[in-house]
Amino acid sequence: MKIVGLLLAAGQSSRMGQPKQLLLWKNRPLVAHIAHEALNSQLDGLTVVIGAAGEHVQAALRDLPVTIVSNPAYAAGLSTSLAAGLRALPSDTTAAMILLVDQPLVTSRLINDLIAAYRAIPTALALVPMYQGQRGNPVIVGAPLFAELQTLQGDTGARTVFQRYTDQIIWYQTDDPAVITDTDTPEAWQALNP
């Protein structure tokens, strides 16, 4: 089973007012921090989708062994980055873990826990982490869903597709709030950096 990481880092960060990808977390740009966590996990490689502030984001990743995919349509929403990333994955990919650039608390240990849970039920179409009843990220999607996910439009993630297959998805209960902690606004960022 080949599970590849897909880090979506192309967004415009409109609510943040500056590129989230480049905010400093533990003395490195957020995109590089999350890439490090992914690379230190059991994922079979990492593809990063860039768009807004693309040159700067690419520079932040220059020393890391990642595949970079540019999404010129990033302004049309999350679905375009998801499609661009899925198209760029190696043809023998079994599943992709979709990582979001605004989740600084996601660790390689959490990533490995999600991978282990997904591997335990190889017939599942996807895995969605749950924290106290809330759906979280990163999610894992199996290759059978890639084509359908590439038909999404606008600022939509995988959730709408998952609604069609709820009984074939692993709803993974975790006690790690990292899966629901993101930083969309300056206030949310400040709360993580008191």
UniProtKB/TrEMBL annotation:
Molecular function (Gene Ontology), one example: nucleotidyltransferase activity
Pfam families per record: NTP_transf_3
InterPro entries (UniProt xref): MobA-like_NTP_Trfase, Nucleotide-diphossugar_trans
Residue span, MobA-like NTP transferase domain: 5-165
Protein name: 4-diphosphocytidyl-2C-methyl-D-erythritol synthase
Lineage summary: Bacteria, Bacillati, Chloroflexota, Chloroflexia, Chloroflexales
